[in-house]
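TA notes, week 10

Several of you asked for a full example with nothing omitted. So below is the full record: structure tokens for the whole chain, then the designed sequence directly under it. When grading your own attempts, check the secondary structure regions first.
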């Protein structure tokens, strides 16, 4: 059995991968899906509300010079996307599988919005030291460049989110029902898991 990190894009997986460097957790990057792994493998991963994830994808594409002019246009065009941007627009469930299967195979499922405060707890789950220096802020309105990255200089504030209309948000949740379920699963598991840590005298906040 191996412990592997599954990484759906725009969910904070890069921050998690940097935090888990040097541990027994093997990073899959975007190359592996849950269905590709050995049935005995266990996984850690992060998930994100599909609306927030789409907003993050839109912001990233704008920063990289994408010609699409609005989030609505991006959604309309998403069914025709091919090439390197396709992974950004796939559902999280494409990587992580249906909620029931993910639940059975997961050691830990984090939510992007709670990743920074929960990192010490994923360390405990996979049995590694819990020291963590927070240099990359996942899921925030602004981000700070990770100072350990090659070539990184002073911290740089980067806008990460766009505002989506309520109608677009409703449409995104309607076309990504499994992603909504997976996000809710992560919330339920987080509550139960932190309660167990409190019971054992853990350091859950």
């Amino acid at each position: 059995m191996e412990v592997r990190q599954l990484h759906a894009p725009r969910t904070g997986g890069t921050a998690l991968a940097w935090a888990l460097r040097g541990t027994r957790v093997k990073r899959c990057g975007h190359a592996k899906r849950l269905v590709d792994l050995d049935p005995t493998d266990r996984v850690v991963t992060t998930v994100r509300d599909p609306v927030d994830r789409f907003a993050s994808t839109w912001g990233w594409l704008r920063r990289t010079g994408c010609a699409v002019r609005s989030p609505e246009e991006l959604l309309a065009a998403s069914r025709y996307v091919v090439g390197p941007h396709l992974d950004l627009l796939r559902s999280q469930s494409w990587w992580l599988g249906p909620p029931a299967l993910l639940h059975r195979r997961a050691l830990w499922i984090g939510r992007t919005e709670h990743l920074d405060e929960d990192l010490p707890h994923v360390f405990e789950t996979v049995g590694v030291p819990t020291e963590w220096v927070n240099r990359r802020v996942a899921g925030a309105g602004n981000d700070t460049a990770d100072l350990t990255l090659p070539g990184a200089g002073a911290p740089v504030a980067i806008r990460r989110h766009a505002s989506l209309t309520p109608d677009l948000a409703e449409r995104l949740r309607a076309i990504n029902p499994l992603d909504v379920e997976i996000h809710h699963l992560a919330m339920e598991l987080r509550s139960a898991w932190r309660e167990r840590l409190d019971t054992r005298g853990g350091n859950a906040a």
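Confidence is low (pLDDT under 50) at residues 134-160. Use that as a sanity check on your answer.
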